[in-house]
Write a structure and sequence with these properties.
flat
């Protein structure tokens, strides 16, 4: 005959665990290092550039992922250009 199953009690967390300080977390900002543009603005610029690439080829014979990667390189280069300090002599 089978023995009845007794539910096991959960172990309570020890005071030592509760007293530990929280780990330091990296804070995430919503700005990219490029020209002070927010992450959302950068994403929108890339999306528009990728769409224009697809539109230019008539939405045929292409891959949207390749369009996105090319647009990302293009936008990041433009943003880096505008973020770079200019020196005038």
């Amino acid at each position: 005959m089978a023995t009845p199953h007794k539910p096991t009690a959960r172990a309570k967390s020890s005071p030592a665990k509760a007293a530990r300080p929280a780990k330091a977390r990296k804070t995430r900002t919503n700005t990219s290092p490029n020209a002070g543009v927010s992450v959302e603005q950068r994403h929108q610029l890339i999306a528009e550039a990728a769409y224009l690439r697809a539109e230019h080829r008539g939405f045929a014979n292409g891959d949207c992922f390749d369009d996105w990667l090319a647009a990302e390189r293009e936008i990041d280069a433009l943003l880096a250009e505008h973020a770079a300090p200019t020196t005038h002599q």
